[in-house]
Each structure stands twice: as C-alpha cells, then as structure tokens.
Design a protein that fits this description.
This protein has one domain. The protein is an alpha+beta fold and 75 residues long. It has a two-stranded antiparallel sheet with strand order 1-2.
C-alpha cells in the first residue's frame, strides 16, 4: 500500500487497545474506526460491526466534513 499516513498494529501487547478502552476480557479488541481531524484530535469514533465495513469510514469522514463546514459557517 502507498499511504500518506502511518498505520498502527497492536498485535504484540495490545497496549493501544488497552489505552483506548477497546480491549475485551477475552484479549481481543473491539473493531473501532477513529477519524482524526487536521489538528490530530479524534473527531469521530465508530465501534462495533459498522467499524468493520469500509463504507463506515467514508460516512465518518463525511460527518466530520459536514461538522467542519457548519463550524466555518458560524464564524
């Protein structure tokens, strides 16, 4: 893959899953999609079955763009 951003793997010790509160008691992590805004803040979180569906990411980004547009209109 030729990506312009880094990907994270949490396979070895699950420390990231623990830190984000998505590690289940059975040692597996819930499926989660995080959308990070331009300032590096988590702007949207999708947890569960919809986080597995790649189209959910498109929807999350669309919601973020809509929120940003509304914020710009209020200024």
């Amino acid at each position: 893959m030729k990506l312009s951003f880094p990907l994270l793997s949490d396979f070895r010790d699950r420390s990231t899953s623990k830190a984000y509160g998505v590690l289940r008691p059975d040692g597996m992590a819930n499926r989660v999609t995080y959308v990070v805004d331009k300032e590096g803040k988590i702007a949207f979180v999708e947890v569960g079955n919809t986080a597995i569906d790649p189209t959910a990411t498109d929807e999350a980004c669309s919601r973020l763009a809509h929120r940003a547009q509304q914020g710009a209109e209020k200024k």
